[in-house]
Amino acid sequence: MITKYNKYIILSVIVLVICVLILLQFAKNKHIYSEAMSDRYTAVIVEPREHAALEYVLQNALDNLEENWDVHIFHGIKNKQFVVDIIDNKLSAFKDRIVLQNMYVENLSIEEYNRLMTSIDFYEKIPTETMLVFQTDSIICEECKEYVNEFLQYDYVGAPNKEWVGNGGFSLRKKSKMIDVLKTDKRAEGENEDVFFTKKEHKLFMPDIETANRFSNEGNYSPNSFGVHKPWWYFTKPDLHKKQKHCKALKRLIELN
Questions:
Q1: Do the bridges between strand 130-134 and strand 41-46 make them parallel or antiparallel, or are there none, so unpaired?
Q2: Which positions ≥6 away from 65 have C-beta within 8 Å?
Q3: pTM for the whole structure
């Protein structure tokens, strides 16, 4: 004979089993999502201006990064329609790979940009562990686009100079490592965000100067690199001329900047 008490016990067991099954399914789905996202990457550009080179560098990124790379555009209030028009009129074939993030600002000063790039909130908006930060004065060299795969292992890599690896204007970063640094240290007012992240005490896994030069050129010339970041500021005229032969997209980038 089943008493009211026994009915209560049976009902409680059924509810418990259902809850366990729901939790198991949630864990399974989360694991599947995590595995899927581990094979995906994000290219990130922060640009609140109606910059002449924006369309060009977006097209370049979408053309030269594989389809498991999405592009996140952090735009401002004033250039929102400008960005939407570029996507609708020029990049419609890539719409499923483009995500817009409104920063709700008119523009950013250098200090405001550094502040943004050293905020945990910014990195939490990126859905993947690995990201490529690029700007309107940087470009991927189609001739060496496959080089990116050599650098996915690192916590941070950017163009080197003679003594330092880490220019942030065209850089690969690990989301979790950036957040770890920001939880334990704070950037000083006026300090560039890339200088902050690449301090030795943060112990990020980064390549040596020679290896980093295969990732990007800024002040150090090398014929072959995955990308460049405004080398026209630093290269001699002969080196800049040679680089344009090895990175044909650079010529137009210079014209737009």
A1: parallel
A2: 41, 43, 71, 132, 140, 145, 148
A3: 0.85
Token readout for 154 is 């690192």
Residue 134 DSSP symbol: E
Q: Supply angle C-alpha 55, 60, 63, rounded to 5.
A: 120
pLDDT digits (tens, 9 = 90+) for 157-177: 999 988 899 999 999 999 999
Count CB atoms within 10 A of the CB of residue 89: 9
Q: Which two tokens stand for residue 110?
A: 């250098």
* Residue 214 C-alpha from the chain's centroid: 18
CB 136 within 8 A of CB 53: yes
Structure tokens at 225: 């690199």
Residue 4 confidence (pLDDT) above 90: no
Q: Which helix (H) or strand (E) holds 85?
A: helix 80-90
Q: Which fold has domain 41-256?
A: Spore Coat Polysaccharide Biosynthesis Protein SpsA; Chain A (3.90.550)
Alpha carbon distance 209, 215 (integer Å): 10
Give one DSSP letter per residue of 2-33, joined into a string: --HHHHHHHHHHHHHHHHHHHHHHHHHHHHHH
For residue 90, the SS3 value is helix
Q: Where are the strands (E) in 159-220, listed by range?
A: 171-174, 216-217
Report pLDDT digits (tens) over 195-204: 999 999 999 9
User: Are 77 and 105 spatial neighbours (Cβ–Cβ below 8 Å)?
Assistant: yes
Contact present, 60 and 139 (Cβ < 8 Å)? yes
Structure tokens at 44: 């990130």
Q: How far apart are CA 111 and CA 78, in angstroms?
A: 20
